[in-house]
Amino acid sequence: MRTKKQLAILAALGTVTLAACGSKTDANEKNFGAALTQYFDKKGDLCLNTKRWPVDLNEYDVRLQKTTATGPGGQMAALEAAGLVKGEDIEVDVMGIMGKPTGTKAKVKRYTLTDAAKPFAQEREVSAIGLNGRTTEKQTDLCWGKKALDKVVKWEGPMKLGDYQEASVTYLYKVNNVAEWAKRPDVQASFPVVKSILDAAGTKPAKHPIKLTSEGWEAKGLD
Question: Can you give the three-state secondary structure of the chain, one letter per residue?
Fold first, then answer.
C-alpha cells in the first residue's frame, strides 16, 4: 500500500505533467486558434480601401458611372445610393507638377461622407514619403465588417531553422458585424471583394503563417 507521502509525490508529478501538456508553445489546434484570433482581433477589420476624402471625379469618370460599376464613378454612385456619400458639382483649381495652381479651373463632382457613414468611418495616421520628405497624413476608410476565426482545419509543420519555428495554418473564417449596406447588390457589384469575402466565409479555406515566440505562437503580420 502506498503511503500518503508517495501519493502526494504522484499527485505533484501528475500536476507537472498536465501543465506540460498545456504548454503555450505546443503545436496544436488550441494554440494556433488563439494566435489567429489575436490576429483577427487586431487586423480583422474589413474596409473598402477608399481612404482619401473627399473624392473628386472628372467628367470622364462621371460619364462611366452607369457602364463601369467597379470604376471610381460606379463606386461613388453605389455609395451615394446607400446614403453614405453625397455628390455635388464644383470647380477646382488645376494644380501643376510642383503642387501649385496653374490659374485654370476644372469641373469635378465632389463626394463627401454623410452622417450615415460616420459609424463605419475608421481614421488612421499613415506615413508617406514625397517631395517634402516624410510626412504623416490622416486617412479615413469605410469599414463594413470584422473577420474572425471560424475553425482551424489543419496545419503544416512546424518547420524549424535553429531556434526559429514556423507553421502554416489552414482555417475557415467568419464575418461578424456585417453592415447592411455591404449586403446591397449595387455595392457588391462596385466592390467585388466584399462579395467574394462574404461568399467564402465558412466555406473556402485560407492559410496564414504562424511563428513561435517567447510568448507562444503568434500570427505573422501582427505588428
Answer: CCCHHHHHHHHHHHHHHHHHHCCCCCCCHHHHHHHHHHHHHHHCEEECCCCCCCEEECHHHHHCCCCCCCCHHHHHHHHHHCCCEEEEEEEEEEECCCCCEEEEEEEEEEEEECHHHHHHEEEEEEEEEECCEEEEEEEEEEEEEEEEEEEEEEEEEEEEECCEEEEEEEEEEEEECCCHHHHCHHHHHHCHHHHHHHHHCCCCCEEEEEEEECCEEEECCCC
User: In this prediction, what percent of the chain has a pLDDT beyond 70?
Assistant: 81
Look at residue 135 and tell me whether its pLDDT is greater than 90.
no
What pTM was computed for the model? 0.78
Closest CA to 113 of 177, 52, 57, 180: 52
Whole-angstrom CA distances from 144 to 27, 72, 105, 141 are: 33, 18, 36, 10
The C-alpha atoms of residue 155 and residue 38 are separated, in whole angstroms, by 17
| Residue 136 in this model has a pLDDT that exceeds 90 | no
